[in-house]
Amino acid sequence: MTLISSEVKFIALGDLEFAENSIRIYNSDGMEVSASVEVVHQSPLQITLAISRLSAGTYVIRMESPDSRVFVRKLIKR
């Protein structure tokens, strides 16, 4: 996923749901940078993140479901 926008939205597919406070964001060096991202909206089926405070670069977004399944996506911010 490559973005120029200041927000990114993740939508759960199938029977996946997102657990509250399960979002972790890591930069390309493996350092957690979750504090630089604001959760704009979160429900079990959708999460919207404000990413304007993140620098340009590649990030890994990690989220868990209530039953401990893990959802991982790569984010490239320009």
Number of domains: 1
Q: Classify the helix fraction into a percent range.
A: under 10%
| Secondary structure tally: strands | 7
Ranges where pLDDT stays below 50 over 5 or more residues in a row are none
Structural class: mainly beta
Query: What general form does the structure show?
Result: globular
The arrangement of helices and strands along the chain is EEEEEEE
Q: Widest sheet: strand order? A: 1-7-6-3
Helix segment count?
Answer: 0
Cα-to-Cα separation, first versus last residue: 11 Å
The proportion of residues in beta strands is over 45%
- Whole-number radius of gyration? 12 Å
Nearest-integer average pLDDT: 89
What can be said about the biggest beta sheet? Answer: 4 strands, mixed
Domain Secretion system C-terminal sorting: 17-76
Pfam families: Por_Secre_tail (PF18962)
Protein name: Putative secreted protein (Por secretion system target)
InterPro entries: Secre_tail (IPR026444)
General description of the model:
The chain is an all-beta fold and 78 residues long. The protein contains no helices and seven strands. The chain has one domain (7-77). 0% of the residues lie in helices and 49% in strands. The strands form two sheets. It has a four-stranded mixed β-sheet, with no helix packed on it.
